[in-house]
């Protein structure tokens, strides 16, 4: 988890910074150029999407459709692409309601997440009583037929949904599908890849947000195993259904970052948070920031539009009230998206400055490494190597504040966001604590030879 800055002169500091994050070139800490006024536009500033679950029977509601068309650029069918909806009788497929949602979205230039090809729940009656090889074949046929029908039209599929057990064991959930053999999940992924090679294939689950949960670790180990054996998996969905008994964990960004480091995209797929007012708004902000802090967190989907559209409407868990008015939670998400964040994955990140011809040879390398994190702050350490007379500039992004330093006596610019530092004595490292105020992005570093 490092970020490295090299420089050969002060002049070079004004040259453009080039960052390579996990192999992809992105600009570091590029702030949003202006505040976007919709969730989708705000998310797109950092290359992400902002989606919602859609119910086909609400597509005649003009308030609903008005908000849908205005605010979101990704759509998930709330129920209409599930197994019971798409294969009500074995071998007879029904796509009409799924198509209504897909076509409405695509006509408006929105993308679609498919949900879900294989699941222990919402199975059609004929499948519920099946077992063994007959069930395995029926499941694989379902995956193949549905993914083939929507080939090229969905951005991503939740190939397998909710296959891990709740509680402390971190193991698989018992189900008729699980009893066909532990390899049912990878078999489903392989069938989906064959049917639609360009769709991103996701594993999707709930209560996998807290890094300390056994269930989170169970899913993580499965994804790591799949990646090591070449099972085709591209993404992991975190449903993110929160309430007071299951609040947004303070280590959410750690969870997302650790999964991303396995080489998969991560997505918040069914976000809702029961509550109201500023408490609810703050939790929505935290989830948004956790995604923004991870480069491979590619988007957020809320599980419905208005509170009254929610599967648990009494908990008022969404961003619009029953009349379609924006709630405080809406504003906090929009503001968080507008304050940007290219995010960083917990992998090596290199920042280099270009060299001005004719400069003296020499230089220095400053390496940032992540330290401990808490819900409101995180530590960073800088290690420097190179010639003696260098100095490091550390820039944090507003509203972050550096609230403590060690092994250094820095000087500050007038904004308080830029500190210029050398390690004390003959040391080669120093550290600081950043109060993130909702922005988890890492500071940018330069080092220069004086
Ligand atoms: O929101 C969906 C609700 O309308 C259905 O009755 C329910 C049936 O299982 O599924 C709800 O959506 C679930 C999603 O498909 C998977 N994760 C949990 C969601 C909320 O229960």
TrEMBL record:
<dbReference type="InterPro" id="IPR008965">
    <property type="entry name" value="CBM2/CBM3_carb-bd_dom_sf"/>
</dbReference>
<comment type="similarity">
    <text>Belongs to the glycosyl hydrolase 10 (cellulase F) family.</text>
</comment>
<keyword id="KW-0732">Signal</keyword>
<feature type="domain" description="CBM2">
    <location>
        <begin position="357"/>
        <end position="450"/>
    </location>
</feature>
<dbReference type="InterPro" id="IPR031158">
    <property type="entry name" value="GH10_AS"/>
</dbReference>
<dbReference type="InterPro" id="IPR001919">
    <property type="entry name" value="CBD2"/>
</dbReference>
<keyword id="KW-0858">Xylan degradation</keyword>
<dbReference type="GO" id="GO:0045493">
    <property type="term" value="P:xylan catabolic process"/>
</dbReference>
<dbReference type="InterPro" id="IPR017853">
    <property type="entry name" value="GH"/>
</dbReference>
<feature type="compositionally biased region" description="Low complexity">
    <location>
        <begin position="344"/>
        <end position="360"/>
    </location>
</feature>
<feature type="active site" description="Nucleophile">
    <location>
        <position position="270"/>
    </location>
</feature>
<dbReference type="InterPro" id="IPR001000">
    <property type="entry name" value="GH10_dom"/>
</dbReference>
<dbReference type="InterPro" id="IPR044846">
    <property type="entry name" value="GH10"/>
</dbReference>
<dbReference type="InterPro" id="IPR012291">
    <property type="entry name" value="CBM2_carb-bd_dom_sf"/>
</dbReference>
<dbReference type="Pfam" id="PF00331">
    <property type="entry name" value="Glyco_hydro_10"/>
</dbReference>
<feature type="signal peptide">
    <location>
        <begin position="1"/>
        <end position="24"/>
    </location>
</feature>
<keyword id="KW-0378">Hydrolase</keyword>
<feature type="domain" description="GH10">
    <location>
        <begin position="33"/>
        <end position="336"/>
    </location>
</feature>
<protein>
    <recommendedName>
        <fullName>Beta-xylanase</fullName>
        <ecNumber>3.2.1.8</ecNumber>
    </recommendedName>
</protein>
<keyword id="KW-0119">Carbohydrate metabolism</keyword>
<keyword id="KW-0624">Polysaccharide degradation</keyword>
<dbReference type="GO" id="GO:0030247">
    <property type="term" value="F:polysaccharide binding"/>
</dbReference>
<feature type="region of interest" description="Disordered">
    <location>
        <begin position="340"/>
        <end position="360"/>
    </location>
</feature>
<keyword id="KW-0326">Glycosidase</keyword>
<dbReference type="GO" id="GO:0031176">
    <property type="term" value="F:endo-1,4-beta-xylanase activity"/>
</dbReference>
